[in-house]
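Provenance

Sequences were taken from public entries as deposited. Structures were produced by running a predictor on each sequence independently, with no templates supplied. The record for Endoglucanase from Roseateles saccharophilus is shown for reference.
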Amino acid sequence: MRTLIPALLLAFGASAASIAQAQSSGTAAGSTANGTAATTAPGSMRDLTSIQLSQQMSPAWNVGNSLDATPNETNWGNPLVNQQLLNAVKAAGFKTVRLPVSWNQHADADGNVSPAWMARVTEVVGYARNAGLYVVLNTHHEGNWLIPTYAHQASANARLAKLWTQIANNFKNHDDYLLFAGTNEVMVAGDYGPPTAEYQAVQNGFNQVFVSAVRATGGNNAKRHLVVQGFNTNIDSTYSGFIKPTDPAANRLFLEVHFYDPFNFALNDKGKIWQWGAIATNPAATETWANEAHIDAQFQKLKTRFVDTGMPVLMGEYGAVLKSEYDPAGMYRTYWTKYVTRSAVQHGIVPVWWDNGYDANHQLGLFNRATGAQYFPELIKAIVDNAK
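Predicted structure for Endoglucanase:
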């Protein structure tokens, strides 16, 4: 979750109401118009391990700040997701779309998801499949109830199981181009220190609840590829405390982490760190601790412990904001992006750029959400070329 909503929000979203929802022929593949499970023949589930599947998924891209926006899809200034956008993403060379979705505001007090919302999510999944993209569908912005403490564990487990049972039943006939990701950046609000043993244990429990709930729905979900998360999707916390959930399906799990190192370069729009790596010329404008060697070392840890033992890694978010006040051409952002993307792929990690939809300074958007036009063709090319 990297929202970064610009101050002139209405300027970005003024035309949102005028964007027509494209009709998806893919909806019927796994659900009916009201979002209930369809009775059509199941899609194909190939005999691929998650490692083999991961090798077909790079590079990848997030439709951020859309279906995860609150209270509704267009409230954060992006138009309704449409077929033209996802066709453009595929044409640019991306192979996978991560679809962040917030569910809680579309559910009643008992956790029953609105049929209209389930149908809308299904429609957007259909757009991505029509475009020929893999889809990673998650639960996003659920932090007000998905709290990793013992005090909240029982209620959160029950709600998470009920939510994923509904989602999984809706999509149980979809083929293996659709993956489910159980949670997002689970943490205790305001606590950015190293996670306690309690936090780690409850997050590991959330992963098990997710896997068990999805598998219990049967159909293609019995062997669908699933994505589980380390604590707060932090590489170090994941490395130190992640426990792989028990899964009756062999070799059908991914691990998810996120990467925005160094923070002051990648996300801090108020700082003065704007250069990065070996090409940096001003020591005052760079943080040398998070250079190329740091990236390679972090990714090597993931490769050694997870990828090399049969569990591929999805880097579900990464990116660096534009800082045109210092670097109008975006030279350092492009160099960082090239290096991170290339190193990730070389270490068996699927990199997923976080696109929040906005092309202004200090933002992460790559595509115009209404038309699919490219805001930064050179940066898009850097991602695609370095994922080969």
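The chain is about 35% helix and 10% strand.
The two ends are 26 Å apart (CA to CA).
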